What we know:
3 helices; 75% helix
Amino acid sequence: xxxxxxxxxxxAALTAAMxxxxxxxxxxxxxxxxxxxxxxxxxxxxxxxxxxxxxxxVGFVVALPFTIVSGSVDSAANELVKKPIAYTxxxxxxxxxxxxxxxxxx
Length: 106
């Protein structure tokens, strides 16, 4: 039992050390070499963006009678339809985090 605890501690320490090294290595890479981010963006994030566009459009149509009465059609369209479209189609590939200061190319 004591041997098992020792081994577990050694494995945990090695795992923590390796995780720290990968974080340091990632910070040293130039921003234009974000191949992993590009892959994740193309394979997972963009398809989820398409789902968000469809869901937002459906939500917008369902909420339309209420937004017309309240006068918030433009803000609802912006949040539910325009932002998912911009996030999916206009941001650079690999830029997964949404950044307010980045202007999307048209």
